[in-house]
Design brief:
mainly alpha; two-stranded antiparallel ribbon; 149 residues; 2 strands
């Protein structure tokens, strides 16, 4: 499987972009949750947090990677995007709960199964975003640092 990646590597930045975009994609429903449905519904109830959405997407992207030409980058991008979204759901099970069999059955699975923990959930997700921004700014300062100026 790794040889499918190794021969396609052209830009690690684009790999990082697609992987992180996929990791953030499930939380695009937060905008809908805040703007149109003022926190009346847990945002984990939307299809962007369904295993039945991300699981088949991940399997399909893996299939495309295996059957595609070794010079084609797009199946790798698709796999990284779908893996990022799938991994996001795994992390959501640590910070709260998700509904694995949704939309067929709404049974919560996760480390915390209490009902009203939305504030803790948003605090954990916000702290991850703040930490990522800190690392981005710090990395940019390190790259831009020139002691000869």
């Amino acid at each position: 499987m790794f040889d499918h990646f190794e021969q396609r590597i052209k830009s690690y930045r684009s790999y990082l972009f697609w992987g992180l975009s996929g990791a953030v994609a499930p939380d695009t429903d937060v905008l809908y949750n805040i703007l149109l449905d003022p926190k009346q519904t847990n945002h984990h109830n939307y299809f962007t947090h369904y295993f039945s959405f991300w699981g088949p997407l991940l399997l399909f992207s893996l299939f495309l990677l295996l059957i595609s030409k070794k010079s084609n980058q797009y199946p790798v991008f698709f796999l990284l995007f779908s893996f990022g979204g799938f991994f996001h759901l795994m992390l959501d099970m640590v910070s709260g709960y998700i509904f694995i069999p949704a939309p067929f059955l709404y049974l919560p699975f996760g480390a915390y199964l209490e009902k009203n923990h939305h504030d803790r959930e948003y605090c954990i997700e916000a702290s991850i975003v703040i930490w990522a921004l800190y690392l981005l700014i710090r990395d940019k300062k390190i790259r831009d640092y020139n002691p000869e100026r």
